[in-house]
């Protein structure tokens, strides 16, 4: 009876409800969720909640949110999400961890309450309108680079609000309101005009790169977008049309193909470029990609950030890169926040990048000096000169699998994960070991140094067994000491794998 009651409540409640398993894969949504987001149950079940990601919250926001869930069992707050059609909206959200009889997290349950309509009727919209009238909005710019050519190829214009009392505000605090109101078009026109003013100045200074301008679905489909675009081009004849790169969100483009494609085609006839933003978060297909006349595919940062430790994200990024090359599209990875991430991207053939590892967004007056002083990291350039086949990428995946395994051991030593001595404590049972003894051995056993890997891998697992023995005895201190030894052996393993990778790729390097 209790189960039936719970089922009825989930189905009938006006709140959106989403249930995920312990790995954050969605297993259940209710009708209110579907009505709010525009997604059908079959379109989200099996995926992670990042299908709703708006891109308006940084990594620290999500880390703090999940830390609270893990430590306290719940999190409450406001979050900006994105509908299937690309529209942004604000929600109050409550996330609770549900544990089984062993105390292990079994489910996560999220309750959402939509608040954009409520706020749209509040004084916040008036504040935004007042801020526009007072000239409090401005643009910062984040570089986009091509590391293979050592060039800055673009600057993405990112709106900010210099609030007189609250200081510099980022888009997440006001753009969800803007994009779901009649302010979407005036704010969009402000961004376009301001970006072209800056592009004209940079061009007069001898700087020749694209300016990326984000276009909201509401602005693009208002019926007057092309007129606005023509007016801008006429007002700034010094700015070549192909210097303008309009960025539209993939999910919004796919949701409204009949409206979006004619507008894009008309803009293309004017010489404008298009970038398909947040690629991978929607329901892409080869048919859709053929129909959308975008020059560049920008891979969503939620997939890029963790490619150095998540083999599924890496496989997806590599597939999108390969797909883009097949369709003769440029591909840019956003969310490049470390040297390691950029190196892996270069290895899989994604050479256009954007992210904190290159530069944070900066005021317009800082751009010229930054551009003249920038050069790509030598490690990145070296990685671009290697040529990997898709078959040899399994070697790269194996390294990432090993890093993930070491991270799991670290979590257990620090007490942030339960002790589980099986099944990966034996050398042939971990994912790296399965690669080494099967596909790795059949493909690379003829290369010098391949068999030097096996004894090092054996030492790592022997060390891990000592760690788990110490933990089972309750001796955390000695377990931590042994883990430091394991890290040293792991570094040696990566050194051997890097040598093997050089042998594999240098044979094809030009």
Automatic annotation (TrEMBL):
Pfam families: CZB, EAL, PAS_9. SUPFAM superfamilies: EAL domain-like (SSF141868), PYP-like sensor domain (PAS domain) (SSF55785). Gene3D superfamilies: Aspartate receptor, ligand-binding domain, EAL domain, PAS domain. InterPro entries: Biofilm_reg_signaling (IPR052155), Chemoreceptor_zinc-bind_dom (IPR025991), EAL_dom (IPR001633), EAL_sf (IPR035919), PAS (IPR000014), PAS-like_dom_sf (IPR035965). Residues 121-375 form the EAL domain. NCBIfam families: sensory_box. This is Putative PAS/PAC sensor-containing diguanylate cyclase/phosphodiesterase.
């Amino acid at each position: 009876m209790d189960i039936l009651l719970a089922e009825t409540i989930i189905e009938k409640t006006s709140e959106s409800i989403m249930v995920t398993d312990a790995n954050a894969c969605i297993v259940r949504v209710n009708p209110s969720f579907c009505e709010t987001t525009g997604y059908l149950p079959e379109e989200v079940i099996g995926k992670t909640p990042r299908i709703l990601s708006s891109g308006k919250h940084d990594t620290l926001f999500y880390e703090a949110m999940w830390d609270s869930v893990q430590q306290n069992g719940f999190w409450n707050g406001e979050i900006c999400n994105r509908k299937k059609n690309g529209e942004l909206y604000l929600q109050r959200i409550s996330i609770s961890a549900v544990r089984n009889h062993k105390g292990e997290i079994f489910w996560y349950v999220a309750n959402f309450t939509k608040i954009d309509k409520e706020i749209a009727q509040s004084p916040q919209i008036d504040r935004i309108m007042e801020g526009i009238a007072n000239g409090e909005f401005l643009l910062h710019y984040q570089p986009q680079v091509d590391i293979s050519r050592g060039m800055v190829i673009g600057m993405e214009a990112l709106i900010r609000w210099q609030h007189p009392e609250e200081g510099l505000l980022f888009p997440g605090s006001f753009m969800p309101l803007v994009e779901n109101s009649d302010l979407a078009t005036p704010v969009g026109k402000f961004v376009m005009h301001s970006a072209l003013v800056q592009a004209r100045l940079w061009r007069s200074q001898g700087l020749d790169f694209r300016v990326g301008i984000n276009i909201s679905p509401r602005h693009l489909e208002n019926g007057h977008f092309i007129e606005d675009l023509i007016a801008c081009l006429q007002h700034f004849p010094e700015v070549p049309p192909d210097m303008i790169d309009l960025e539209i969100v993939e999910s919004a483009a796919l949701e409204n193909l009949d409206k979006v494609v004619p507008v894009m085609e008309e803009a293309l006839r004017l010489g404008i470029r298009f970038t398909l933003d947040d690629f991978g978060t929607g329901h892409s297909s080869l048919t859709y990609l053929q129909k959308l006349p975008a020059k560049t595919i920008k891979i969503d940062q939620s997939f890029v950030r963790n490619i150095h430790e998540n083999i599924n994200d890496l496989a997806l990024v590599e597939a999108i890169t390969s797909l883009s090359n097949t369709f003769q599209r440029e591909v840019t990875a956003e969310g490049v926040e470390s040297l390691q991430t950029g190196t892996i991207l270069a290895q899989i053939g994604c050479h256009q990048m954007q992210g904190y590892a290159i530069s944070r967004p900066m005021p317009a007056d800082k751009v010229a000096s930054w551009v003249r002083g920038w050069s790509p990291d030598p490690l990145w350039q070296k990685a671009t000169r290697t040529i990997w086949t898709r078959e040899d990428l399994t070697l790269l995946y194996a390294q990432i699998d090993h890093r993930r395994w070491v991270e799991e051991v670290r979590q257990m030593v620090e007490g942030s994960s339960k002790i589980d001595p099986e099944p990966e404590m034996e050398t042939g049972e971990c994912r790296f070991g399965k690669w080494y003894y099967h596909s790795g051995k059949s493909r690379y056993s003829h290369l010098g140094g391949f068999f030097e890997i096996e004894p090092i891998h054996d030492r790592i697992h022997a060390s891990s067994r000592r760690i788990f023995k110490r933990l089972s005895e309750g001796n955390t201190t000695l377990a931590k000491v042994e883990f430091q030894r394991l890290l040293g052996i792991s570094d040696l393993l990566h050194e051997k794998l890097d040598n093997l990778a050089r042998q594999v790729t240098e044979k094809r390097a030009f």
